[in-house]
Amino acid sequence: MQISPITSTPPAADPVQLSERMNRMSPVEQRRVVAQQFEAILLRQLLAPALQSMPGAGNGVYSYMLTDAFAQKLSTGSGLGLAAVLERQLTPRSETKSAAPASSLSSSGQTSATLVP
Fold first, then answer.
1. Which pTM value belongs to this model?
2. How many other CB atoms are found less than 10 A from the CB of residue 6?
C-alpha cells in the first residue's frame, strides 16, 4: 500500500502544478484564470478585517483558511463581476477589436462603453 506524503499546500495551490496547468491553457483561458485569482486576492483583502471583527469567526488558528475559503468561493463562477472587467482589460486590443462589433451592442441597440484604452 502506497501512502502519499502530506504537504503543506493543497495540489491546486502548488505553484509548479499551477504553472504547468497554465502553460497548457489557451491565452483566453489563462486570462480568465488570472482574473479570477486576482478577484479572489482582492476579496481576501476585503474579507480579512471584516471576519476579524466578528466574535469567534475570524479569530484563531484557522482565520486565514476561513477567509481564503470564502474568497475562493465568492470569486468562482461569475463572482462579483470584477474578474470579467479584469479579463477585458487583459485582452489585447487586436482581440478586442475583432470581437467589438458583436459584443458592443446591447439588447436595446445602444453601444456600451468599454474600459479598454
1. 0.60
2. 5
- Per-residue pLDDT tens digits for 81-114: 888 888 899 888 887 666 555 444 444 444 444 5
Return the residue matching grid coordinates 477585458: 88
**Which range (4-8, 42-46, 89-93, 106-110) has the least confidence?**
106-110
Amino acid symbol at 65 = M
- Print the SS3 string covering 55-107: CCCCCCCCHHHHHHHHHHHHHCCCCCCHHHHHHHHHCCHHHHHHHHHHHCECC
The one-letter amino acid code at 108 reads: S
